[in-house]
Design brief:
about 5% strand; about 140 residues; 2 strands; mainly alpha
Length: about 140
């Protein structure tokens, strides 16, 4: 039987088990050292498009010519256990929150803050439809 058959390799490993364990440990140490030394420069978390895709070119033009920045977007849910969106106290609380948010001009784009009550009072039917989608079925929660 050949020494390079699976039976021969198994026999060798069984007869010299501590030698095999030492070789595996040495292999893992060398692999870890090599990874830490040489692979660190090859890996990155940066993303860069290698082609001039239309979306990349368009975004670059927006940033260059119009000082465009992509703002963060957050959604605020206002909920009450006793009031509904139709109650004046609920409306006052929401409008106060909206005005407070718009006052933080350094952090918030005032034009980007939408209010259910402003959309519901709009003359545009699509805005009114959108406003109704922002209210829960029990009318006690508002996005």
């Amino acid at each position: 039987m050949s020494g390079f058959s699976t039976a021969g390799i198994s026999r060798f490993c069984a007869q010299r088990r501590w030698y095999v364990v030492a070789v595996w440990i040495a292999f893992l140490v060398i692999a870890g050292y090599s990874t830490a030394t040489y692979l660190g420069d090859a890996l990155t978390t940066d993303f860069e498009s290698l082609t001039d895709q239309d979306s990349v070119v368009g975004l670059a033009l927006l940033e260059e010519r119009m000082q465009y920045t992509d703002p963060e977007q957050e959604t605020i849910v206002v909920d009450s256990t006793s009031l509904t969106v139709d109650d004046p106290a609920f409306e006052a609380a929401v409008e106060g929150l909206v005005s407070d948010l718009r006052a933080f001009e350094a952090l918030v784009d005032p034009d980007g803050v939408l209010s259910y009550y402003e959309l519901a009072a709009s003359d545009i039917q699509d805005d009114v439809n959108l406003a109704e989608q922002l209210v829960s079925d029990d009318r006690q929660s508002l996005v």
